[in-house]
Write a structure and sequence with these properties.
Blueprint (H helix, E strand, L loop, with lengths): L2 E5 H11 L13 H17 L3 E6 L6 H6 L24 H12 L3 E3 L5 H11 L4 E5 L14 E5 L8 E3 L1 H8 L6 H8 L14 H10 L3 H9 L7 H9 L1 H11 L22 H10 L2 H10 L3
Parallel strand pairs: 1-2, 1-4, 2-3, 4-5
Antiparallel strand pairs: 5-6
Helix pairs in contact: 1-2, 2-4, 2-13, 7-8, 7-11, 9-10
Length: 300
């Protein structure tokens, strides 16, 4: 009864850089990201055997409500001119083709205006029954791990064949913090990839001390003001100095669990009576065995 949530941008970027750029359609259109995405999806379905699936997209990769609170949110990824994330020019034309292919397969694709894919996945994880497997190369989703509800992250940083299955014990072992406090840890540590500075002067070790001693930002601030025994004076001073950032950090850093999701059937797609449209698409774009692998993984 597993629900698989695919962080689609994470997958297609990983596929784009992991597959040779010599993979092209008969008309010369690059298809390396498409083939890699489909290959990974087929492999994941074969391994985790979900009965529900959804490919999640960014409705906005810099949601206005995060940028309003913290204008530098992901500003490090902006192009020098304009307000768009830099994207390899040979990846851009592949995305609509991939989305058309997912539609042909009947795999639901969901993005929500003014929310990131992380928020979409977090909301599904919040409202759907487990087991839930969140497929991503992004650490941000570690905050959703929940052993009681069987929510785990299929973490692709090492690639699909050596991926980690992140549960509470993984978080505890990797960061030396309680497994359910990754979000708090990230608020203090920061995340350069998202342009989030964290609290000035506090790195991973200091953030771990805080996450071990306190359950939330308010407790940490109160502890700093009260010279809590778990906090060295220098660390307490940094927490107090970061009070302004800490007012916004919970909203900016934590994934939203209340994105207004559309009503979508998440059940694994059933085989159509006729696969000819998929086979024609496969031939048109030279997708070869990748399409066949997904057909096989779906049991069609």
């Amino acid at each position: 009864m597993t629900l698989m949530l695919l962080d689609s941008a994470s997958l297609w970027y990983r596929a784009y850089y992991g597959m040779p750029d010599t993979l092209v359609a008969p008309d010369g259109t690059p298809v390396n990201a498409i083939r890699g995405y489909i290959d990974m999806t087929a492999r994941l379905i074969s391994v985790y055997k979900p009965n529900r699936i959804v490919a999640c997209l960014d409705g906005d990769w810099r949601p206005s409500w995060r940028v309003e609170l913290f204008p530098d949110y992901k500003a490090n990824r902006l192009e020098e001119e304009g307000d768009e994330e830099e994207e390899p020019e040979t990846l851009t034309p592949q995305i609509p083709i991939l989305l058309d292919l997912l539609d042909l397969f009947g795999i639901p694709v969901v993005g929500v205006d003014d929310f990131e894919a992380d928020d979409v996945m977090a909301t599904y994880a919040e409202i759907e029954k487990g087991p839930i497997r969140i497929v991503t190369g992004d650490r941000d989703l570690f905050q959703m791990v929940d052993d009681k509800r069987d929510i785990k992250v299929v973490y692709l940083a090492k690639g699909i064949s050596q991926h980690d299955l992140v549960d509470n014990a993984y978080v505890e072992n990797k960061y030396a913090i309680p497994g359910d406090r990754y979000a708090l840890f990230a608020m203090f540590r920061g995340d350069p990839s998202d342009g989030l500075p964290g609290v000035k002067g506090i790195g991973e070790k200091g953030a771990a001390v805080i996450a071990n001693a306190f359950a939330n930002v308010d407790e940490a601030l109160a502890g700093a003001h009260a010279a809590h025994e778990a906090l060295p004076p220098a660390l307490a001073k940094k927490i107090i100095a970061g009070a302004e950032y800490l007012k916004i950090a919970p909203t900016v850093v934590q994934v939203a669990r209340n994105a207004p999701l559309p009503t979508v059937n998440l059940a694994m797609p059933k085989a159509p009576n006729d696969l000819s449209a998929i086979y024609q698409f496969k031939e048109r774009y030279g997708l070869g065995a990748s399409v066949d692998r997904l057909i096989s993984a779906l049991g069609w």
